Amino acid sequence: MRLLPTAAVLLSLACAGKSTPPATRSTVHLRGNAYARGFSHGEQLKSRIQSFYTRLMTASLYPYLGREQPDIATLLKEYDGERYQNGNFAYALLLDSARNLEKSLTVSQKEELRGISEGSGMAYEQILILNTFVDTVLAVRGVALSIRLARAPQLKSLEVPQAASDGADNDGDGMIDEPGEGVLSAYVAEAAANLVELPTNATFRVVLEDADGVDPATLRFTLDGALFTPGAQVSSRALSATQLEVTFTPPQGLPPSAVVSLVLSAGDTVVVTRPPPSHQSFMRDEELLFTTRGRGLAPPDVRRPPITDGRTRAPSLALALRGAATRDGKPLLAQHFALLDANVAHEHTVQFVHHPEGAPPFVTFGWAGVAWGFAGLSARGVAYACNPADTLDNSVVGSVVEQLVDLGKARLLAKGVPIGFVGRRILEGTASTQAAVELVQTLKHPYGWSCVVADKAGDLRALELDSNVFTDAATGVFSYGPTDLDASGRRYGSVRDDDLLSTSVFARNRDDIAPLMLAGQRIVPQRVWSTFFFRGRRAVDGLARRVEAQYGQLDAAAVQGILAESELVDGSDSMNAVVLEPARLQAWSAMGQVPATEGPFEAFDLAAEAAP
Amino acid sequence: MSRALLLGALLVAAGAHAAETTTLPKGAWAFDVSYIASNLANRWGDDQSRLPLLDDIRRYEPGAGLQGILQPRPVVAFQLAVLQLQYGLTDWLTVGATVPIALRTAVDTNIGWQSGDYQSALGRAYSLDDFWAWAASMGQQRVPDRWAGNQGVLADIVLSGRFLIPELRWLKAAGLRVATTLQVALPTGRQAPPEELVTAGTSTWELHAYGDVETHLQIDRPFFQDGYGIPRLSLGADLWFSYFRPRVVTSPLGTENPLLQTFQPYIGDTYVIDPGEWLAASVSMDVVPIIGPARASIVSGGDLERARALPPLLTLNVGYAHIGTFQTTFKSNSDLWSYERERYWLPGEKNQLRAGLTLSFLRLGVPVQVYANYRNQDLIPGRNTRAANTLTAGARLLFKFW
Questions:
Q1: For range A197-213, the mean pLDDT
Q2: What does the buried/exposed string (b/e) look like for A69-78 if buried means 16 or more CB atoms within 10 Å of the residue's CB?
Q3: A53, B17, B321, B370: which could join B352 in a potential S-S bond, CB 3.0 to 4.6 Å?
Q4: A26 — contact with chain B (CB < 8 Å)?
Q5: Are B7 and B369 within 8 A, CB to CB?
Q6: How do residues B73-107 score in pLDDT, each as one tens digit?
Q7: Do A59 and B254 touch (CB under 8 A)?
Q8: Interval A153-171: pLDDT, tens
Q9: HSE (side-chain half, CA atoms, 13 Å) at A81
Q10: Chain A closest-CA separation from residue B385 CA (Å)
């Protein structure tokens, strides 16, 4: 009988020893000078930094980028060199750019990275790469993606024959049934609706072109979520060896007085085997937008409806609110960032609270080993959030341009201040949105970014950045506020005067680069090739609907709810979501799971940290 | 004394039957050889749900979302030969050595696939073949459909001793016999090679059938004994504690599986597995449907009376064991990595049903017993344990009796 209590004790010990999951998010306070804060960061998060680097870089991105080596080396012979062999290609490529980007960092930023390195026991080069790879990889990916899409079928023209004589203005030019109405003979993707006020019996005729020919079997049309493949509704005929005319006839016509989205995709006839898996070259999902008779909207005023075809995911997005938009009139900045979780990043999320010597504290939302976040808030009352925006006006393209005379020695090099360090400089050195804009205008940017800045006074500005490779008037920084209007007199990214909505799509910098040929490759604007373009436009419109519906009632809780709505969430690569109040110095963040908003928003009081 | 000839299975405590307290007579030797076939396809979850041995693995393409979900449904088959040699130092103390040898371990990986996000680069979502082609381009070879190994590989050798507690007056009055057993495993088994993804080792930790050190307290109560002491029914119980020593394991570098096994840079050169101990109890019942004829022979020293006291011709055995398993901890440089392993080894339990039979030819003058038993962990749900089912068949040869 004496055994029984003993057994009970042992069993209770067994239960007490049950393993509990380590936190996938943490808050780390960093104090002192830049090196001390970096060292503390590295020391406190040593294990997680090593894990993050190994899993994301060594076991994921490096081998992934390594797949591109043969193709890149075909054009740029330098990458056939010994330094890039034996699986070292991606590391060496990213290190080349990291060292180039390092030149643009401030002394204190480099000191902080050195501190992270020495605190964590990792090589400085590894920490440098971890802090710079995003801009580089996005730029290289942009180049690779645009090359790939250039090999795929192109949508050359679109025609709705019924529009020619339907008695309506279908293209918003103020004329009815003029010659050529209903025909987009040189199709270019646009944010606005392609045609409006179409008759419900409309049919769609498109011409696709590919140097290798278009494979009719790969045609897909999706009309408001319903899929149509070659058959009664989708017919095609070859116009030439490279052109295919395709006609789509909606089976029951189009709904009246409706917004209609038609998604088109197709592949070519050549199977590409490298890099694996084998595949034909597919165009991006091209989303055509229409209205039918009675809707009464001009093309730029049509908002994209949600698409639930299982193929599309929301991109990163941000919104800023103030005055009449918010319940208390105070400014508010929010972001849901999605890019590259890879089932890794969410386990390494950190809220960093910096307490610099002799300066106000600030907070960033990022990852172990990374000195910055894509969003942050300073006790000076400035908040920012940045989302990637595809562009070929990027520094890697610029590096090829600079080295055109000898492509044999050319390398892909990013140049400028990585966006995360731009954010850090905003938090550390500016006290207003205006000052932040002026700071950003003095910096060079390695890639395209779409940022929103808000300050405690309620000044909201969007900043669209590119590398300004071909030197345009805006020096690579395009700024606008809620009341700024485009050439058509419409807001760039706002519902009313007190909100600003932004995603991975340029609104003001819409012609980010003039089309040209470079080293045999087509260089085209974002809207022509970016796979984020239509997704981004849809996300802005989804945000707009929600903000409009709750105008004046929006507060941190309401915005958290918007950020978590499935239409606006990337279920695979969501990384973090934040709501920041620059006037009250309050922050809420959701991170540590995928999607980030599957978990609760946790509050942080920066005002308390700033109190003397 | 005659009961002393019926040997207990010392190899695996849970394999003992109602004759929990048997010891060899002084000077007697027993040699036992058995074949074990074990099959493992499921584990029990924390809520006692039946789960595959491994969780699904979500695979992502950097920046392009979910490629798909690998759904491994492995089935593991172990085959072992077990050699035992025991010796009766005294009538109340038997010592022995058990040598388990893995004959073959086979793993059928049975990897299924659930497609993930649409990949615009392919114009489709990844199929399983697409995924492996993609992985191969990054140096990760396809996981084999089947792995077989451990042919003739030694497992951890066990040294054991069973002590029959003297029959105190109150024990005798109650008809009870009590024994204790101590068994110690020597680290002669093989750890699974660190770089291989589909493999199996042969140490106590990997076989998860017996501990490195086990102490047993066993009790027997025979009923309906005939005039020669042969019971028609025996009830037995065994309470035991198994200790597993912590072990240092080499971390994989990812040389063979760079996408799936690159751990060393962040978990350290080695990590430590500290297996959870076991606290267990079993009950068992022996039924003797046929005692059988007896004849004087060399086994009985030519004495018919002694022959009639030898074990019955047929003994049937059923039993149940409840094995409480403590948390296994992993210690590495990465708490996250360690936790991902530990969550497979949360505190739990095995519920083991057992049935078997023993044919003894001692009464007939042949110093051999043959036996077979089947242990099942599938029928009664366990918790956080693997549900191995095991078939054992063996024979014992007795060298000397007294």
A1: 98
A2: beebeeebeb
A3: B321
A4: no
A5: yes
A6: 999 999 999 999 999 999 999 999 999 999 999 99
A7: yes
A8: 999 999 999 999 999 999 9
A9: 12
A10: 14
Test A22 with B336 for CB contact under 8 angstroms. Answer: yes
Contacts with B241 from chain A: Cβ below 8 Å: 10
- CA distance, residue B163 to nearest chain A CA (Å): 19
| Chain B residue with Cα closest to A345 | B62
Residues of A in contact with B117 (CB under 8 A): 311, 313, 572
How many CB pairs lie under 8 A apart between chains A and B?
150
Chain A, 557-586: which have a CB under 8 Å from a chain B CB? Answer: 570-573
pLDDT at position A10 over 70: no
Between chains, do B63 and A275 touch, taking CB under 8 Å as contact? no
Alpha-carbon torsion (B244, B245, B251, B256), positive or negative: negative
d(CA B195, CA B257) in angstroms, rounded, equals 7
User: Are B136 and A58 within 8 A, CB to CB?
Assistant: no
* pTM score, whole prediction: 0.91
CA distance A458 to chain B (A): 34
Dist. CA B253–CA A517, nearest whole Å? 45
Cβ–Cβ contact B137 with A under 8 A: yes
Contact between B18 and B373 under an 8 Å Cβ cutoff? The reply is no
Q: B5: pLDDT confidence band, cut at 50, 70 and 90?
A: very low
Residue B136 Cα, gap to closest chain A Cα (Å) = 8
A 10 A CB-CB count for B233 gives 14
Element (H, E) at A312: none
Residue found by looking up tokens 């000078």 in the block: A33
Q: What is the DSSP letter of A485?
A: B
Residues of A in contact with B339 (CB under 8 A): 19-22
pLDDT digits (tens, 9 = 90+) for A478-514: 999 999 999 999 999 999 999 999 999 999 999 999 8
d(CA A172, CA A416): 41
Q: What are the residues facing B183 on neighbouring strands? A: B160, B214
Alpha carbon B359 to its chain's center: 23
In this complex, do B336 and A51 lie within 8 Å of one another by their Cβ atoms? yes
Question: Would the CB atoms of A570 and B276 count as touching at under 8 Å?
Answer: no
- Whether the bond between A255 and the residue before it is cis, its omega within 30 degrees of 0, is no
Of A22, A340, A570, the CB nearest to B62: A340
Distant-in-sequence, close-in-space partners of A273: CB < 8 Å, separation ≥ 6? none
Which amino acid, one-letter code, is at B244?
F
Q: Are B345 and B331 in contact, with CB atoms under 8 Å apart?
A: no
Q: What is the 3-class SS of chain B, one letter each residue?
A: CHHHHCCCCCCCHHHCCCCCCCCCCCCCEEEEEEEEEEEEEEEECCCCCEEECCCCEEEEECCCEEEEEEEECCEEEEEEEEEEEEEEEECCEEEEEEEEEEEEEEEECCEEEEECCCECCCCECCCHHHHHHHHHCCCCCCCCCEEEECCCEECCCEEEEEEECCCCHHHHHHCCEEEEEEEEECCCCCCCCCCCCCCCCCCHHHHCCCCCEEEEEEEEEEEEECCCCCEEEEEEEEEEEEECCCEEEECCCCCCCCCCCCCHHHHCCEEEEECCCEEEEEEEEEEEEECCCCCCCCCCCCCHHHHHCCCCCEEEEEEEEEEEECCCEEECCCHHHHHHHHCCCCCEEEEEEEEEEEEECHHHCCCEEEEEEEEECCCCCCECCEEEEEEEEEEEEEEECC
Residues B113-122: tens digit of each pLDDT: 999 999 988 9
Question: Is residue A269 less than 8 Å (CB to CB) from chain B?
Answer: no
pLDDT value of residue A339: 95
Please give the pLDDT value at position A437.
98
Query: A302-316, A460-474, B323-337: which has the highest mean pLDDT?
Result: B323-337
